[in-house]
């Protein structure tokens, strides 16, 4: 049975960001608005974002009996001695007035650097597990809003400019913002806490080397961990409970690329790698496959790009380590060439 996870916020923007980042976890994610009964909001009276995040996580978990994830955010503007800080959501009653107050205090100042910080706290009532993660992003409070239609225009997003991205938060998609933002970084740390805390895992991941017209399909990983982000890999993923290897592979490829595939032949070798820092060992089970139907369309939650490569092109790309091993094995490459030239 899939566990419910309560994200303890009434802010639709926050819920959208956090649930998007947690879409690949084994939880059914619900918000406060999904509860059967209305729960009064707690008084956020702690002097730190960590304190308020834990207060909310414990409060809503006790009220519902559910594992709960709560966050609290502060905007720390250096020229204003870190004002408004932990009280950034409470300096006025609405976004327009809050942004107006900030602009008034920064009027005439050239130094407009700021840091957004989020504390995300996970509380599990049955085992009394409490874990808090911090994420932060440096930026600049600009004097005029910059927004893009369909993006995240709530809160301080239109005025918080991230120099490394050359965009404000309000010019980013959910996927872009989660990769760079304070909340996205904290939420990702929570995800890896879940895996690392409970047990060392041995993961089985079938992947597909999809061939078409002499080329192979690869996807670029979107991952907040720098060692994995923007690395190329073959589509595939972890086996869900009750699935066969082939069922899992076809499902994952369809989810990640929108392609239906036919399995042609298993790869000569099974590859494995231990990732101690994340408390798991992964076994990669590659298969050569061909696409049957569908136009390539990536899953933005996990990937940022998909591209067809020649074998030589693929071997030169920055690949994830096990995928790189695949492209170096002579026996495997000879087998692959048979399908690329047929």
TrEMBL record:
Record InterPro entries: ITPase-like_fam, Nudix_hydrolase, NUDIX_hydrolase-like_dom_sf, NUDIX_hydrolase_dom, RdgB/HAM1
Residues annotated as domain Nudix hydrolase: 200-332
Protein name: Nudix hydrolase domain-containing protein
Annotated organism of origin: Candidatus Magasanikbacteria bacterium CG10_big_fil_rev_8_21_14_0_10_40_10
Domain of life: Bacteria
Phylogenetic placement of the source organism: Bacteria, Candidatus Magasanikiibacteriota
Hydrolase is among the record's keywords: yes
Family: Belongs to the HAM1 NTPase family.
Keywords: Hydrolase
A GO BP entry: nucleoside triphosphate catabolic process
GO CC terms, sorted: cytosol
């Amino acid at each position: 049975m899939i566990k419910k996870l309560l994200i303890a916020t009434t802010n639709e923007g926050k819920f959208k960001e956090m649930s998007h980042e947690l879409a690949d976890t084994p939880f059914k994610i619900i918000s406060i608005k999904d509860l059967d009964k209305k729960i009064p909001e707690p008084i956020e009276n702690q002097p730190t974002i960590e304190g308020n995040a834990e207060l909310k996580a414990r409060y809503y978990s006790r009220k519902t009996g559910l594992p709960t994830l709560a966050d609290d955010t502060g905007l720390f503007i250096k020229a204003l001695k870190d004002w408004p800080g932990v009280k950034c959501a409470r300096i006025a009653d609405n976004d327009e007035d809050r942004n107006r107050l900030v602009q008034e205090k920064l009027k005439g100042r050239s130094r407009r650097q700021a840091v957004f910080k989020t504390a995300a706290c996970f509380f599990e009532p049955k085992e009394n597990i409490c874990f808090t993660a911090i994420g932060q992003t440096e930026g600049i409070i600009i004097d005029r809003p910059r927004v893009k239609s369909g993006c995240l225009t709530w809160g301080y997003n239109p005025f918080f400019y991230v120099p490394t991205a050359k965009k404000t938060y309000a010019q980013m998609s959910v996927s872009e913002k989660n990769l760079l933002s304070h909340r996205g970084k904290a939420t990702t740390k929570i995800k890896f806490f879940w895996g690392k805390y409970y047990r060392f895992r041995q993961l089985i991941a079938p992947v597909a080397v999809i061939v078409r017209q002499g080329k192979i399909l690869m996807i670029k990983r979107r991952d907040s961990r720098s060692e994995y982000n923007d690395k190329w890999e073959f589509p595939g993923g972890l086996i869900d409970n009750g699935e066969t290897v082939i069922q899992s592979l076809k499902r994952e490829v369809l989810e990640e690329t929108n392609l239906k595939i036919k399995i042609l032949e298993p790869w000569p070798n099974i590859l494995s790698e231990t990732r101690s820092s994340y408390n798991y060992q992964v076994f990669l089970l590659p298969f050569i496959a061909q696409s049957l139907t569908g136009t390539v369309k990536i899953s933005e939650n996990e990937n940022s790009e998909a591209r067809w490569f020649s074998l030589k092109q693929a071997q030169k790309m920055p690949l994830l380590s096990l995928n790189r091993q695949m492209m170096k094995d002579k026996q495997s490459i000879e087998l692959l060439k048979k399908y690329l030239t047929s």
